């Protein structure tokens, strides 16, 4: 470009290629192009540069981690359409082996935890053939008549001597036919006013020598069991598979904190609801424009589940095992199941401290494929019974 | 700056929704991000030349963009506004880099790309790094963002004639730098 004419020709060429050249100058430029090989070469060079720039995929593809960080810091769910295909391939290749092993370990652990909880629940259910043994009986004997009353054992029963088979009111026939022990409503029809007097006397005079117990009572069985509504709050500290690779929105007041309410159906069984908020690390795959794309996000999500809890008999003074199963969902993500095995330490009637091991599985769907996030870890908290 | 639009809601309407209910704000932000995220990142990356820095600036750009919308600001040109935020942050970033570069090995600033790139594109980005900031910036806005001269003048705060000259010189310089290789790639 040694002279002013060449300079002006180049300026015209650039303006034309950028859509900034007026119509009157276009014809002049076309004439120059038809006769000036150097100008045509220049145009070809700029076209080549522009074409290369337009294929600069690296520049036009924001990293998935940046997208995740932006949306997480604003408290939004990460969109599926903005991901880094390039990093996906690298991550996939490097992480495939370790990820598979880790995934298997977490899945297996979660499954074992859930299975153990289920087995424990199964064997702790009071079954029909075991009905006799599950009832604490007070037997009032008078000549020729026996009245069986089901009721919670009072603390004063501690003074009662060990059971005497000879005086036990539970006969072998009754053991074979547990229905004989059925509800007072059936028995009451045959009870005379005199029976009622005896019953009243038995209640008023608990140490009456004629009363026996057919099974030994441990003193810690006498601690009142929940029979109402229990509120609880607990924290969870869990490892996740897949491991989080992007920062999640944090909320120190309500992250990994669960709150729930349980309604006792009996001494051992309770149902209720529980909710909380925690981050679920998600790694999944999809296809965009024919390319396999790996997505990574770590959204902080609210979740809620229905709860079934079984509380076993005391293993140690004030210490009860429990198992809990939950099913529900994490909002905007997918179905969620949790299983917990733990211990309740109940130093007072209404307050309990809870520790346990917990596993959870979150299922979510993307492009007709299902993926999961598995977690295992510890939980601890307190409950208060109303 | 045209984007990869996935619905027909105007930018101004989406911007307005950013200051509304969280659910609508999230949907609007997601849409605007889909439209302009790629372009903003391209600007940051090619202007700064370093991926880590570009990523930081890019994240900050969208966070500031959202926060500014919370103040019920009226908006007529969302992409232009985004690029202005990105530009200010990029200039700050470069200023900070200049203050610290003397304590570092300059080579540490020349980071290899982690993504596979064509050889010619690699040459272009290398040439881009060799341009002065004001030339590189207008080149990126023109070639990567597809902005008109007037839009570029608005963003960089320069006169239209000045922008025309800068763009022309930037392109010529890149062509000069690439001259030894052009016969191989322009055919």
What does the model show?
The complex is a heterodimer of chains A (386) and B (187). Chain A has helices at residues 4-17, 23-35, 37-54, 57-60, 64-73, 85-124, 172-176, 184-188, 193-204, and strands at 137-142, 145-150, 229-241, 257-264, 269-279, 282-288, 291-297, 300-311, 319-330, 334-345, 351-366, 369-385. In chain A, 31% of the residues lie in helices and 33% in strands. Chain A contains 9 helices and 12 strands. In chain A, strand 9 (319-330) and strand 10 form a beta hairpin. In chain A, helix 1 (4-17) crosses helix 2 (23-35). Chain A has 2 domains: 4-124, no CATH class; 229-385, Beta Barrel (Porin). By secondary structure, chain B is mostly helical. Chain B has 8 helices and no strands. At the A-B interface, helix 1, helix 3, helix 4, helix 5 and helix 6 of A face helix 2, helix 3, helix 5, helix 6 and helix 8 of B.
Mind sketching the topology for me?
The complex is a heterodimer of chains A (386) and B (187).
Chain A: H1 4-17, H2 23-35, H3 37-54, H4 57-60, H5 64-73, H6 85-124, E1 137-142, E2 145-150, H7 172-176, H8 184-188, H9 193-204, E3 229-241, E4 257-264, E5 269-279, E6 282-288, E7 291-297, E8 300-311, E9 319-330, E10 334-345, E11 351-366, E12 369-385
Antiparallel strand pairs in A: 1-2, 3-4, 3-12, 4-5, 5-8, 6-7, 8-9, 9-10, 10-11, 11-12
Helix pairs in contact in A: 1-2
Chain B: H1 11-17, H2 22-48, H3 51-69, H4 78-100, H5 119-130, H6 133-144, H7 149-156, H8 160-185
Helix pairs in contact in B: 1-2, 2-3, 2-4, 2-6, 3-4, 4-7, 5-8, 6-8, 7-8
């Amino acid at each position: 470009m040694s002279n002013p004419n060449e300079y002006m020709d180049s300026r015209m060429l650039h303006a034309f290629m950028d859509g900034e050249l007026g119509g009157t100058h276009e014809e002049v430029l076309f004439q120059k192009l038809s006769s000036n090989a150097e100008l045509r070469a220049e145009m070809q060079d700029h076209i080549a540069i522009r074409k290369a720039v337009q294929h600069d995929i690296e520049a036009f593809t924001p990293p998935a981690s940046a997208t995740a960080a932006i949306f997480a810091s604003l408290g939004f769910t990460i969109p599926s359409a903005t991901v880094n295909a390039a990093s996906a391939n690298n991550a996939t290749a490097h992480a495939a082996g370790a990820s598979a092993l880790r995934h298997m370990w977490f899945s297996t652990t979660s499954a074992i935890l859930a299975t153990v909880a289920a087995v424990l629940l199964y064997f702790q259910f009071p079954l029909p053939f075991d009905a006799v043994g599950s009832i604490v009986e007070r037997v009032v004997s008078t000549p020729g008549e026996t009245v069986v009353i089901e009721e919670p054992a009072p603390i004063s029963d501690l003074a009662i001597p060990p059971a005497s088979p000879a005086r036990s009111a539970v006969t072998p026939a009754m053991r074979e036919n547990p229905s004989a022990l059925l509800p007072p409503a059936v028995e009451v029809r045959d009870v005379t006013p005199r029976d009622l007097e005896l019953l009243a006397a038995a209640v008023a005079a608990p140490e009456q020598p004629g009363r026996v117990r057919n099974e030994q009572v441990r003193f810690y069985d006498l601690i009142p069991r929940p029979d109402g509504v229990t509120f609880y709050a607990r924290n969870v500290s869990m490892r996740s598979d897949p491991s989080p690779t992007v920062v999640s929105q944090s909320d120190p007041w309500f992250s990994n904190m669960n709150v729930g309410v349980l309604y006792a159906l009996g001494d051992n069984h309770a149902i209720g609801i529980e909710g909380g908020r925690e981050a679920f690390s998600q790694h999944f795959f999809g296809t965009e424009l024919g390319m396999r794309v790996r997505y990574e996000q770590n959204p902080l999500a609210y979740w809620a589940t229905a709860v079934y809890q079984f509380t076993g008999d005391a293993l140690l003074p004030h210490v009860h095992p429990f198992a809990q199963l939950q099913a529900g969902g994490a909002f905007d993500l997918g179905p969620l199941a949790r299983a917990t095995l733990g211990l309740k330490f109940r130093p007072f009637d209404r307050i309990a401290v809870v520790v346990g091991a917990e596993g959870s599985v979150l299922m979510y769907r993307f492009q007709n494929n299902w993926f999961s996030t598995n977690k295992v870890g510890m939980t601890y908290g307190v409950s208060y019974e109303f | 700056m045209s984007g990869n639009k996935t619905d027909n809601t105007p930018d101004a309407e989406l911007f307005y929704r950013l200051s509304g209910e969280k659910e609508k704000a999230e949907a609007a932000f997601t849409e605007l991000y889909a439209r302009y995220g790629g372009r903003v990142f391209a600007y940051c990356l090619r202007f700064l030349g370093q991926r880590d820095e570009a990523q930081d600036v890019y994240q900050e750009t969208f966070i500031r963009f959202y926060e500014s919308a919370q103040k019920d600001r009226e908006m007529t040109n969302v992409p232009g506004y985004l690029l202005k935020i990105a530009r200010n942050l990029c200039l700050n970033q470069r200023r900070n880099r200049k203050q610290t570069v003397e304590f570092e090995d300059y080579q540490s600033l020349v980071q290899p790309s982690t993504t596979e790139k064509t050889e010619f594109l690699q040459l272009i980005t290398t040439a881009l790094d060799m341009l002065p900031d004001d030339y590189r910036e207008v080149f990126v806005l023109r070639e990567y963002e597809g902005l008109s001269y007037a839009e570029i003048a608005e963003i960089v705060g320069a006169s239209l004639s000045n922008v025309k000259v800068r763009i022309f010189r930037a392109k010529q310089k890149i062509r000069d730098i690439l001259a030894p290789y052009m016969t191989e790639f322009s055919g």
